[in-house]
């Protein structure tokens, strides 16, 4: 090895460090092999010694000792007693006056002995016919008296009672010009309340009112509102309307309920 190094480093600077490293390379290699071999022998020997002499002995148990691992039986629960309430006593009605009725029986004339005389008509009128005689309250009448007939009143179905408005008729009331003119009127007269605009409120208000025989509007009632001034504005516009064409039943002008939805919507 030294001769090879001399040839390689001929005419070169041997003090640079590479020459010295190559000179000591074999020595370092031997030390590394011996150190690795020693560590391997130490680990292998320690493990072998531990496995042979260092095992932890298990818990000593006598061969004659028996361990019962069977779980203890549960104590059966006693069945709950079902308490049956006593039957309710039915109140026995008061006994009514009854007379025993003797059915006819064929006998020889000589052996017929009239031990119990048959009841008379006066007794039968005040008693109920039964298979035995019982003393009780006298019955004034066996048959119930039918109630007096109720007088039937004929009502004219074309006109509601107490002159109340109709909910549906043959010809419903309408705004002059029809729905087209009605929507034009609403769009031209409704002012969107400022409170509703500030709160970004929109929705549908439904107002119910009565169209009278002469076409006038009365009895305004709010069926559905959204608040913020929209309900009041709907009332104001409806009261401002001109006369409607009244509803008719059998060709006669009558009062009719009418529900009008009004939509408030921000553009």
Number of strand elements: 7
* Contiguous helical run count: 6
- What spatial form do the alpha-carbon principal axes imply? elongated
Rg computed from alpha carbons, rounded to a whole number of angstroms: 60 Å
Mean pLDDT: 76
**CATH homologous superfamily assignment of the domain at 161-264:** TonB
The major pleated sheet works out as: 3 strands, antiparallel
CATH architecture of the domain at 161-264: 2-Layer Sandwich
- The class by helix and strand makeup works out as alpha+beta
β content, as a range?
5-15%
- Top-tier CATH class of the domain at 161-264: Alpha Beta
CATH fold assignment of the domain at 161-264: TolA/TonB C-terminal domain
Strand order of the largest sheet: 4-3-7
Report the end-to-end length measured between terminal Cα atoms.
101 Å
**What is the element string, with H for helices and E for strands?**
HHEHEHHEEHEEE
Low-confidence stretches: 139-146, 150-159
Describe this protein's structure:
The chain is of the alpha+beta class and about 270 residues long. Among the domains are: about 1-40, no CATH class; about 160-265, 2-Layer Sandwich (TolA/TonB C-terminal domain). It is built from 6 helices and 7 strands. β5 and β6 form a beta hairpin. The longest helix is centred in the first third of the chain and has 36 residues, at about 20-55. Residues about 140-145 and about 150-160 have low confidence and may be disordered.
Task: Describe what is shown at a glance.
The chain has 267 residues and is an alpha+beta fold. It contains six helices and seven strands. The chain is 28% helix and 14% strand.
